[in-house]
Amino acid sequence: MGEGKYMKAEKKISVVVPCYNEEDVILEFYHELHRIMAERLQMAEYEILFVDDGSKDASAGIMKELSKKDEHVEFISFSRNFGKESAIYAGLQFAEGDYTVIMDADLQHPPEVIVRMYEEMQSGSYDMIATRRKDRLTDTKLRSFGAQLFYKIMNKISGINMGNNAMDFRMLNGKAKRAILSMGEYNRFSKGIFEWVGFRTCWLEIEIPDRKAGKSKWSLMKLFHYSLEGCMAFSTLPLALSSLIGFALCLIAVFMIIVMILQTIVTGVEGSGYATIICTILLVGGVQLFCIGILGQYLAKAYLEVKQRPKFLVQNLSEKKRNIYDRDLLV
Ligand code: UDP
Ligand code: MG
């Protein structure tokens, strides 16, 4: 739909906004979002749920003021900085709308996209409306190279396709929201979680403007740690690595031993002590690494078990079974 077309939205939308030291942008963000919700969507029922992730600036105070003035504004304040992932989780837990939108406070996620998301969601063919950034012009070369490399590796080793340039800016219906909440793990990597739960996802390509004010909370170092976390949360391949290395060392050692024995037989001269020691070290080291790798495999299984991820997620079911599903709040 074109800019400026107005519609009346019937469903209730909750907008979850994780904020960490965003005093410079919260007000502008609020006005912009309010304009979309109240005017463009003419939404009677909606909530803007700010999650203050332990901000050290005036963010919490600004949210509190807003919630006093506007009944649509709610907030949750954390006791300290728990990270964006925890803020998203808390927001989803407290969101009461039929649809839930997750978006950043810095206006890099343009609020008018919510109108498009709403339309797609209303069509009934999707459970999740996700966004992908068109290009990475606003990023530095190093950052966008890092991001591309990361997605390539992740998609290979995790077995799920996290898509290139996927963002956290999304709209979820009740089903998708419940599914994501049912992933109770502590180390949360949202991009992986969104893909892991599956469901019918509609992708919107959007252009990302620069941050309106304030600074990005992500240094390169933080991004690097975040990617490592992602790898570890969705793949146990690193645990298998020592097995592989150990196995390779064993092969080399066995090969060298065979060569030495053959040499002795053919030439009749015994191999040097130096070579024998190298072979032994390689062999023993290899066997040890290999065994550590086996331990790793068991650890990997236990690791996935401890996460207590749901064993399945329901897309649809027959009327009679729906009662059981609603009564027991299955995912
Ligand atoms: N954020 C958060 N907790 C943190 C870091 C960031 O809630 O520990 C929020 C931040 O306030 C913003 C969103 O996450 O609303 C995205 O952060 P930022 O804009 O710094 O990330 P970038 O857009 O640079 O990836
Ligand atoms: Mg940003």
Give an overview of the whole structure.
The protein has 11 helices and 7 strands. It has helices at residues 26-40, 59-69, 84-94, 113-122, 141-158, 174-181, 190-197, 220-234, 237-267, 273-306, 319-327; strands spanning 13-19, 46-52, 73-77, 99-102, 128-133, 166-172, 201-206. It has a 7-stranded mixed β-sheet, with helices on both faces. Strand 1, helix 1 and strand 2 form a beta-alpha-beta unit. It is elongated, with a radius of gyration of 26 Å. The site of uridine-5'-diphosphate has 17 residues, from strand 1 and helix 3.
Protein traits:
single chain; 331 residues; alpha/beta; 7-stranded mixed β-sheet; 13% strand; binds uridine-5'-diphosphate; binds magnesium ion
Small molecules bound in the structure, each named once: uridine-5'-diphosphate, magnesium ion
Form type:
elongated
Strand portion, in percent? 5-15%
The main pleated sheet reads as:
7 strands, mixed
Q: What is the terminal-to-terminal distance?
A: 33 Å
H/E order of the elements?
Answer: EHEHEHEHEHEHHEHHHH
* Number of helices in the DSSP assignment: 11
Tally of DSSP β-strands: 7
Radius of gyration of CA atoms, rounded to a whole number: 26 Å
The helical percent reads 40-55%
Structural class: alpha/beta
Which runs of at least 5 residues are low in confidence (pLDDT < 50)?
none
Mean pLDDT: 84
* Largest sheet, spatial ordering of strands: 3-2-1-4-6-5-7
